[in-house]
Amino acid sequence: MQILLGLILGAVVGLAVHFVLPHRDLRGTALAPVVGAAAAAVSWTALTWAGVGADSLVLWLAAVIAAAVTSLVLVTALSRARMRSDAADRARHGI
After folding, report:
1. Greater pLDDT, 92 or 1
2. Most CB atoms within 10 A, among 17, 41, 55, 74?
3. CA dist., res. 32 & res. 34, Å (int)
């Protein structure tokens, strides 16, 4: 049941990443929170399978760090790709 808290924490971290990074208008609002929750879920599951208990600080820190790093990298990369794609479309259409 504590994995749910880890997922919520990952989604909150992802939401913070969405609002901290520029170019919010180029991506969906749900992208970063979903990515953060997914990264937190993967890290939480891997560590619990490795035997780390829910009372360990390592598990919580890993969930937060995995959510933050994954959200930052993926959202930045997708925003840059969208800007390049939009610029190419504008150039192709002569705008």
Report:
1. 92
2. 17
3. 5
Q: Which residues contact 45 (CB under 8 A, 6 or more apart)?
A: 3
Identity of the residue numbered 53: G
Q: Is the pTM of this model over 0.70?
A: yes
Nearest residue to 9 via CA among 63, 62, 73: 63
CB 11 within 8 A of CB 68: no
Q: Which residue has the tokens 């820190």?
A: 61
- Distances 38 to 13, 24, 25, 67, 87 between C-alpha atoms, Å: 11, 20, 22, 8, 30
Residue 82: CA atoms inside 13 Å, Cβ hemisphere, count?
13
Residue type at position 90: R
Torsion of CA 25, 23, 82, 10, to 10 degrees: -90
